Amino acid sequence: MKPLWQTSLTVLCFMMVSWATQATTVTLQTSVGNLEISLFDSAAPHTVENFLGYVNRGAYNLSIIHRSVPGFIIQGGGYTWNEATLSVAKVPADPAVVNEFSVDRSNVRGTIAMAKLGGNPNSATSEWFINLADNSGNLDNQNGGFTVFGQVINGMAVVDAIAALPIINAGGAFNTLPMVTPPTSNQIHQDNLVMINSVNINPVFPITVEKNGTGNGTVTSESVGINCGNDCTENYFSDTHVVLMATPNSVSSFTGWSGGDCSGTGTCEVTMNAIKTVTATFARITHLLTVNKSGAGKGMVTSNPSGIHCGTGCTKLLRSYNNNTRVILTATPNSNSTFSGWSGSGCSGTGTCTVTMGTNRTVKAIFKAKQTLQ
Fold first, then answer.
1. Is residue 16's pLDDT more than 80?
2. For residue 93, what pLDDT band results from cuts at 50, 70 and 90?
3. Given CB 3.0 to 4.6 Å as the disulfide criterion, which of 91, 256, 292, 353 pairs with 126?
């Protein structure tokens, strides 16, 4: 690979590259510390597939960071180290991947991009680099742009520590070789090098929220992901701490969690180390409406919405209504009676009686017998 040699920088506003919970993440275990990188599976599918091909067959295991340019990049993926022979070997290259550069994925600090041959935008194979600074003014504008295919989401302090190491000129591709410790002789050993001991794909686990009970509501996650409602299953990286919150609708109450080691009616906190299912139970809130009839007369009381129908032989009727239901009661006397009015729950007069069921309610309808001449 021809090294990236231009180091001029244009100062730009830092542009964060977003990543989704569904993205593939990998962990690079180095001799200086671990890096976690989120890959842009959807935005750069061919490049990510190419990179994961090397990861899956272990091609990056026992490889080295062979180039470090402070304030610019650190570069790896090209060479493995053999301590038995005290020598390097090229990582066997797959066919070159098509360039997928986009201005939406710029070469800013913390991004990982593919290295390639000068004058050939579609020549990237195994080598990659991590941007130490905003290199967009330079790397976005040469050789078709360098394809950013991921971002360091944990471990930039490790990247900076590697960049701060002393470098030596070991010739050829190793003219800026970082040293963890200086060699004590003319021979370099594994302990001197920044080793990438392994690169592994991080597991992803799904969490599913189920809703149960006579009521209804929504369950959301504190961070982007679950919104159930409609989105009741989401994938999360291993060891992600997920906080779920339940919100009942206006006619329901939340009665508690089950599953996923959650209980009670507070938040549900789940650590994603396996497939998880959590159930939120909602109960419908109902209130009792009691209608009494009194007086010497007779008549009927009906309701809208339906439920109350207290006719001639009825003196008391109870019905349950959902929380906040607006119930309109109508009193109709028979031919030998008159309706003299309502009492209770704020009702009076001889028109309709309207009650809002925010609690249990009791209403009385009074009917009088008509006076007759003997």
1. no
2. very high
3. 91
- pTM (global) more than 0.85: no
Give phi and psi for 186, each to the nearest 5: -75, -5
Model confidence pLDDT, tens digit, residues 148-202: 999 999 999 999 999 999 999 999 999 999 999 999 888 999 999 999 999 999 9
CA distances from 59 to 63, 80, 196, 294 (A): 8, 8, 11, 90
**Domain 25-201 of CATH type 2.40.100.10:** yes
Q: Bridge partners of 256?
A: 281
- Say if domain 287-369 classifies as CATH 2.60.40: yes
Are 229 and 261 within 8 A, CB to CB? Answer: no
Sequence ranges of the domains in the chain: 25-201, 204-284, 287-369
Question: If we measure between CA atoms, which residue out of 339, 364, 208 comes closest to residue 279?
Answer: 208
Residue 362 tokens, joined: 């009791």
Q: What digits encode the pLDDT tens for the residues 256-308?
A: 999 999 999 999 999 999 999 999 999 999 999 999 999 999 999 999 999 99
Tell me, yes or no, if the two domains 25-201 and 287-369 fold the same way: no
